[in-house]
Amino acid sequence: MSQNNVYTNNVEEEYMDIVSKNAWALVYQKLGLSSQQFCFTWNEAKKPKNKALNRYRDVNPYDHTRVILKRCEHDYINANYVTMERANRRYILTQGPLAFTVGHFWLMIWEQNTKAILMLNKVIEKNEIKCHWYWPQAIGEVNKMTFNEVRLEVVLVSEEDCGYYSTRLFKLRDMESGKCRDIMQYHYTTWPDFGVPTSPVAFLQFLKRVRESGVLDPTDGPPVIHCSAGIGRSGTFCLVDCCLVIVEKEGIENVNIQEMLLEMRRHRMGLIQTPDQLRFCYQAVIEGTKRLDPNFKEEDEMEESIYVVVNEEEAPPPPPPRAESLTRAPARPLPAIPASESLGNLQLSAGADSSSDSCPPTPPARDSRSSSASSADDEDEEPRAVAESGAGAGEDLLRRRRRELAERVSSMKRKAREAERWHALKRFKKEDDTKEPCED
């Protein structure tokens, strides 16, 4: 691949043309209109017995590509195969499990011979539960999770904090046959809901780590990829991966990102949820193509990467006033977050690459604090209080802050349990009311 082909190509020219016309919303809308021409059904998702198994009522799996469970009373799960033959890729895209579908989730992994889970969301985002915590919260056999309904056990073997993402190794055991399998989880912890990472560079490094493990290769079962709904961040990951595979095989001149997206949407509805996610796919493909060039120099990326220049010229609209505390530097260092096994290893190290624009890359308790209007107002008042009252008062303030954080964590856990009970009650009620089905 010549240097000229790397740094001047049709994808980059198309990207610059859309930017010059400020037409990302228009391009995204046209893709949506094209997708509406598909004549695919999702009748299984609309059945009364299955409605409660969908996290979102407007995100349903197509019938022709849905994953069918075999060793379960109900064969339904909100998941689709996404097969891209040209890129020699096959994925399973699914929603974040609900409290009463975690067993179904692990059964799908067992039956599909999956070797890896790619989780692209946090459990709690913007004070809302986006995914039930489906893995053991501590290492060791004593902390295993057992799902008697599907006869499976899950043990957390090891865990590694890689800054803006984490990796975990699970041991999945079939209680009927006694067989065990190793399952890897790659958990991207700093990708905001309905958003994109700040830079394609960190995302491409994450993609490289996943690729090097071999879990995306067709030799084993398809990897399971999920965010909350299994369409936005999950679709973004798959689109960039497939495009870069074709770049390596056929060259950048043979890649059409929009056609690839439409092909993927034939397998699961709604992939790529925002114009920003579409733009990020272009940026990641352009940057990833440059990195395939043997003459590429890592130190030159900030000078030559097209997305850096464009982001400076086309600044995003300002956030609402309540979110100002997320975008400006704090007037003083924030207190450390108390360690908690129940929150998992989601906290970034001091030098981590934070790529979340709408919610900070911290455990759920920090999210609830940043999303509070009163907390945003307090950011201006408390530094002055510390300065006026001296170091002793500052230490008292830090202790009070830690105590408040612990209380918020406890509150979030309680709300999570209440939500799980509510979902369970709703599911049972829907099963009892099959004589009078409720249509959307």
UniProtKB/TrEMBL annotation:
Domain of life: Eukaryota
InterPro entries: NR_tyrosine_phosphatase, Prot-tyrosine_phosphatase-like, PTP_cat, Tyr_Pase_AS, Tyr_Pase_cat, Tyr_Pase_dom
Subcellular localization: Endomembrane system
The protein's Enzyme Commission number: 3.1.3.48
PROSITE patterns xref list: TYR_PHOSPHATASE_1, TYR_PHOSPHATASE_2, TYR_PHOSPHATASE_PTP
SUPFAM superfamilies: (Phosphotyrosine protein) phosphatases II
Keyword Nucleotidyltransferase carried by entry: no
Enzyme class: hydrolase
Record flagged with keyword Protein transport: no
PANTHER family hit by this protein: TYROSINE-PROTEIN PHOSPHATASE NON-RECEPTOR TYPE 61F
Family affiliation: Belongs to the protein-tyrosine phosphatase family. Non-receptor class 1 subfamily.
Protein name per UniProt: protein-tyrosine-phosphatase
UniProt organism field: Trichoplusia ni (Cabbage looper)
Lineage: Eukaryota, Metazoa, Ecdysozoa, Arthropoda, Hexapoda
Name of the gene encoding the protein in the UniProt record: LOC113503899
